[in-house]
Write a structure and sequence with these properties.
single chain, 591 residues, alpha/beta, Rossmann fold, Pyrimidine Nucleoside Phosphorylase, Chain A, domain 2, Aldehyde Oxidoreductase, domain 3, five-stranded parallel sheet, 21 strands
Length: 591
């Protein structure tokens, strides 16, 4: 029988070694895994791990009798691991033992198949855990964290497990590291553990694993640990593999056209209803552009929320197809049409933790575009402190990834980094944003110039993909022609009619409060996070009339008492809450 593996668990105080070992003990097969009980010269009722208690003299006697595999000293105590562990290894069982990294060299000489499992966590988490234990002063904790560790002996096989999430996720990572080392699990479980353990997966490994997750075969901490691993390390090849495998999970819609276009934005910018302007322009040109959009998650309105002011957005797949057949386009809610069990779980995990899901989103978004039947996709990647991409460099890197993965899927993808430092348009909230869109399409003199300009940019990029147009300059000229002639507005009316027009909102009862400048100066910045928060506080998006109506933008010079924006709501109490919030921070930065 092959010798078992000896998993020697080490790591700094506060890393949670005992917790992970206790959690693994509940899940691992006791006929295959032996958890070593340490002999320690401290009373049995002293707390901490379950151990074999003895006096110092008893310990010395056991050591003299050869009862220990190894012994060591720490914190004025003697520790020993029993020599009987060698018998378990010889019988093919795997040993899990907690110990000191100073003993690794001795173990290398005494046991076959030694694997050191180093449990770690970021310094701030270690400090917090040590402080909660209350055993040491703040100075002692700082000294402990500052200690330098000696390198492992050359040739030592080391697995590293980061324990920085929930205990359940930590246990899943620990077990995954053990199983991946042993390599005895069938697919797709082996792939699940391999990714949790921090290794890259191939397309062949992702395919059955994602199918199993989609069918809800995995849940709980194991699934959470897998998805967190996907946010922390996804190589470019893995992105392509993920996108291909995910695109196979849903049947691809066929629209009967060689060219089906889509426009997508990563969002994060208040207002910015560019999509609602671009879609009717493209539809009026004659291209097919079925568009599904999301509702607001943290903002005052999503595209679906704003469109719902004008038309029904909760369409079945059959209704969507009928709408596109009639109007060349739709602007519908994607909740029923592009639902993803995997993304639902991912969002539920990563949003509260603030994890970076940008690379994961590339595969998620493009696989959905592929399944929705798109052949050409133009993507807006705004960069700002409140967006997924914080800087222009980060946005440009995301653009590169979108185009690379798109090519691998057989899509034509053009992605653009855009400045998202300020809101686009004047309205923040469903009805106000829909108003801005209508004004642009109707060529109203008060239409927001920034919304018009950004819409023309993306419309021209999409139209340039049409061989009959051929260039961005001609695409812009065509977009302006469709706007100025009223063709784009007529196309929007056709989309609204095909989806089902909503009755007009009654604005007469809306409650308003003017927010005015408390100092003079030039508007240097508008904090989109604050402005969106005000809109949500006022009741948006559930209250379609609630929101923020901006009166001036970046670069505007204001004097004390000048109007900055108007808060509005249907509920007096919510308006009062929004007013109080604005008084603490109006969101405008003057200089």
């Amino acid at each position: 029988m092959a010798s078992g593996s000896f998993f020697f668990i080490v790591g700094p105080s506060g890393a949670g070694k005992d917790s992970l070992i206790d959690g693994a003990r509940q899940k691992l097969d006791p006929t295959q895994f032996i958890f070593a009980t340490r002999t320690i010269t401290r009373p049995a009722d002293s707390g901490g791990e379950a151990h074999q208690a003895c006096t110092q003299s008893e310990f010395a006697q056991l050591e003299q009798q050869g009862k220990f595999l190894i012994t060591w000293q720490a914190h004025n105590l003697s520790y020993g691991l029993p020599s009987t562990l060698l018998e378990a290894l010889a019988a093919g069982q795997h040993v899990i033992a907690n110990g000191s990294r100073a003993m690794v060299a001795q173990l290398n000489e005494r046991v076959p198949n030694l694997v050191v499992v180093e449990i770690g966590a970021p310094a701030e988490i270690l400090a917090q855990r040590l402080a909660q234990r209350g055993r040491e002063s703040a100075d002692d904790v700082a000294k402990r964290l500052a200690r330098k560790t000696e390198p492992y002996p050359e040739g030592t096989h080391v697995l590293r497990v980061t324990n920085d999430q929930t205990p359940a996720i930590g246990v899943s990572r620990f077990i995954a590291a053990l199983y991946t080392q042993l390599g005895k699990n069938p697919a797709p479980l082996a792939s699940l553990y391999k990714k949790i353990a921090g290794f890259a997966l191939s397309e062949t490994e992702y395919r059955p694993l994602l199918a199993a997750i989609h069918q809800k075969q995995y849940s709980g901490a194991e699934l959470e640990a897998f998805l967190i691993a996907c946010t922390q390390q996804l190589l470019d090849d893995e992105l392509i593999a993920l996108a291909r495998c995910r695109s196979e999970l849903m049947p691809r819609i066929s629209w009967g056209r060689d060219m089906v276009v889509d426009k997508h934005s990563l969002g994060g910018i208040p207002g910015s209803r560019v999509t609602m302007v671009v879609i009717p322009i493209v539809a009026a040109h004659g291209l097919l552009i079925p568009k599904t959009s999301s509702r607001a998650i943290t903002s005052a309105a999503g595209s679906a929320d704003a469109m719902e002011v004008l038309a029904k957005v909760d369409l079945t797949p059959e209704q969507l197809k009928q709408c596109v057949a009639q109007a060349n386009a739709c602007i519908a809610w994607n909740g029923k049409l592009n639902h993803s069990v995997i993304d639902d779980v991912m969002n539920a995990i990563t949003r509260p933790l603030g994890l970076d899901t940008r690379r994961w989103s590339v595969a998620s978004i493009l696989s959905k575009k592929y399944s929705a039947g798109a052949t050409h996709v133009v993507i807006d990647i705004p960069y700002s402190n409140g967006a997924k991409a914080k800087t222009q460099v980060a946005a440009e890197e995301l653009a590169r990834l979108f185009e690379m993965v798109g090519t691998a899927l057989g899509l034509v993808v053009k992605a653009f980094a855009t400045d998202g430092q300020a809101p686009i348009g004047r309205g923040i909230g469903p009805a106000l944003e829909a108003r801005d869109v209508v004004q642009v399409l109707e060529r109203h003199p008060e239409a927001p110039a920034d919304l018009l300009e950004k819409s023309l940019f993306f419309a021209s990029q999409i139209l340039a993909l049409d061989p009959a147009v051929g260039s961005v300059a001609k695409g812009r000229a065509r977009a302006l022609e469709l706007l100025n002639s009223g063709a784009a507005n007529t196309a929007m009316q056709s989309i609204v009619a095909a989806q089902g027009a909503q009755p007009p909102l009654t604005w007469s009862g809306v409650l308003k409060h003017e927010v005015r400048a408390q100092q003079s100066g030039r508007v240097q910045a508008i904090d989109g996070f604050v402005i969106s928060g005000l809109g949500r506080c006022a009741g948006a998006p559930a209250d379609q009339l609630a929101g923020v109506d901006l009166a001036c933008g970046i670069g505007t010079s204001v004097s004390v008492g000048d109007l900055l924006y108007v808060l509005q709501a249907s509920d007096q109490a919510k308006l009062a809450q929004a007013v109080a919030l604005a008084q603490s921070d109006c969101g405008y930065r003057l200089g």
